[in-house]
Amino acid sequence: MKPLGVAAALLILLGTPGAQAAPNLTAEQALPRVEHHLHEVEQIARHFESVMHSGCRRFSTPDEWRTYFDGEIDQMILMAAHLEQAWVEAKRTGDDGVRRAAKAPRRRLEDARGLVDKLQGCAADNGTSFDPMDVWRRVEREVPRRRVEIALPDTPASASPTATPVAR
User: Fold this and answer.
1) Residue-wise DSSP of 139-152
2) What's the mean pLDDT when you consider all of the chain?
3) DSSP state, 159?
4) How many CB atoms lie under 10 A from the CB of residue 158?
5) 106 vs 12 pLDDT, higher one
6) Taking a C-beta distance cutoff of 8 angstroms, is the pair 51, 72 a contact?
7) Are 65 and 59 in contact (CB under 8 A)?
8) In angstroms, how far apart are the furthest CA atoms of the chain?
9) Highest mean pLDDT pick, 11-15, 22-26, 135-139
10) Whole-angstrom distance between the N-terminal and C-terminal Cα of the chain?
């Protein structure tokens, strides 16, 4: 990696909320936070499974297709953001069980590759196309912003884990 790239990566990492935080939550505090994000991942994954197992939707105009396509890619971005945020939350505790729980669903990102392939076929059926690499660049570019949007607010250390607000 070029020195400039390393410097940029470090700046991004150092500026990421929670990236520098030493473990500061108990497992009982961190687990509900991680579970919230994993629940969201599973809901989106179920949606993607239904897309994968159904026929391609037909649209009367390329603009209608693009709106649908952008919505599906937005869901992919949201899923990736929840996966990353679950890991950020898990790193806030030293508990290996919480960390394993946060890592387990990362395979869902691999499933997204099949979704992109399916959408590429559906795009052709709707008289349009897209470059899959553009999709992955968009995901990579937009996940950090979405992570910030979905991050749960911190609660005082004395608060019980069930008092952690869940924002949507």
Assistant:
1) HHHHHHHHHHHHPP
2) 82
3) S
4) 6
5) 106
6) yes
7) yes
8) 57
9) 135-139
10) 37
Task: Report yes or no on 51 lying in a domain.
Answer: yes
Tell me what pLDDT residue 96 has. Answer: 93
Query: Which has the higher per-residue pLDDT, 155 or 108?
Result: 108
pLDDT at 160 over 70: no
pLDDT at 68 over 50: yes
| C-beta of residue 23 within 8 angstroms of C-beta of residue 93 | yes
Token pair 């952690």 is found at: 164
Q: 89 is in which domain, residue-wise?
A: 25-150
Which two tokens mark 61?
């105009």
Q: How far is residue 75's CA from residue 71's CA, in Å, rounded to a whole number? A: 6
Domain count across the chain: 1
The tokens describing 33, both together, are 């936070």
- Per DSSP (E only), the strands in the chain are none
Tokens of 161: 């884990």
Please check whether residue 8 lies inside any domain of the structure. Answer: no
Q: 3-class SS at 20?
A: coil
